[in-house]
Amino acid sequence: MQDYPSNMRKWTKSPAATQHFGVLLFEGFSNHCLANTVEPLRAANSLSGKDLYRWQILGLESAPVTSSSGLAVTPQERLGHARGDMLMVMPSYGFRDHVGWAVQTGLRAAASRFQVMTGLDTGSWLMAEAGLLDGYRATIHWEEITGFAERFPQVDAVRERHVTDRDRITCSGAMAAFDMVLEFIARDHGQALALEVAQLFMTRDSARSHGGLAGSRSSTVNRALALMQEHLEDPLPIPDIARRVGRTQKALEARMRADLGAGPAVVYRRMRLNLARKLASETSLPVSEIALRTGYADASAMTRAFRAEFGLSPSALRRAGD
């Protein structure tokens, strides 16, 4: 997968301050859960060209923490010294071994230094033991949901992929963690950026094309996106796309702006330029051929659009990747 230069222009709803996350690991944590949490954040930074998110790996102590598959990770900071916007509690396997006074005390103290507390996988159990989920709706890995509900009657335990209740977020597992982080990105910086992140990781909804965006809550928008993806080399007029999905151009425009934060013309252009960016960075095709494959009549027109979108030319992108 290509990691793009930091001078790529952002495509977000509005500028926002960098958010600081702490990821608290315990012995037996899941590599899968950790990667699904931090990699979408890294991708959002790369694709936007902005320092949208920062994260620290935390531990109760400074000694390395070993995952369930034997990967040792050295914390960057001890929990007692950390603060930020969100703390993600990630014990995963063997979580019952971590139930105790030290963990409860550490989590209660951290709740005053982090605006939001998030339990991933089985992290909900440790948060509940610390009294941090009393009166909240919460979920946990579904293998533990029955025991969780019985052990903590003061928590409204629900079988959902992830749950947000005020300043508490809980998540049921590694795959759900990826979805949860995508929702953070969409909420903070627009659905369009979240969809680009999903496409970068070839999630199921975005796997049909490497050209750009895919996947929306609106069936109308999804049908329009599918048509765009199928016609990157021979772009369809926007009125034709609207007609094919059974909407007026005005209605499609409104739906896309509401769902993606941008109109059809902008989304379509971005999809074509995403494909141009991929071809420029991962192939040796001449710029003239890239232009033809992305629906531009000549290379100079594509290069101008590319530079306006990403802040550098296809040739400069290739040099940056050398």
What does this structure look like?
The model is unreliable at 1-15 and 204-215 (pLDDT under 50). The strands form 3 sheets. Strands 5-2-1-6-7-11-10 form a 7-stranded mixed sheet, with helices on both faces. It is an alpha/beta fold. Helices cover 45% and strands 14% of the residues. The radius of gyration is 22 Å and the shape is elongated. α4 (145-151) links the parallel β8 and β9 (156-157). The chain folds into 2 domains: 19-187, 3-Layer(aba) Sandwich (Rossmann fold), CATH 3.40.50; 208-322, Homeodomain-like (Arc Repressor Mutant, subunit A, Orthogonal Bundle), CATH 1.10.10.60. The chain is built from 13 helices and 11 strands. It has helices at 31-48, 101-110, 123-129, 145-151, 174-189, 191-200, 219-230, 238-244, 249-260, 264-282, 287-293, 299-310, 314-321, and strands at residues 19-25, 53-59, 65-66, 72-73, 77-78, 84-90, 114-120, 137-138, 156-157, 162-165, 168-171. Residues 222-320 form the HTH araC/xylS-type domain. Keywords: Transcription, Transcription regulation. InterPro entries: Class_I_gatase-like, Homeodomain-like_sf, HTH_AraC, INH-QAR. This is GlxA family transcriptional regulator.
N-to-C series of helices and strands: EHEEEEEHEHEHEEEHHHHHHHHH
- Give the count of helical stretches: 13
The CATH superfamily of the largest domain bears the name Class I glutamine amidotransferase (GATase) domain
Shape: elongated
Classification by helices and strands: alpha/beta
CATH class of the largest domain: Alpha Beta
Pfam families: HTH_18
Keywords: Transcription, Transcription regulation
Organism: Lutimaribacter marinistellae
InterPro entries: Class_I_gatase-like (IPR029062), Homeodomain-like_sf (IPR009057), HTH_AraC (IPR018060), INH-QAR (IPR052158)
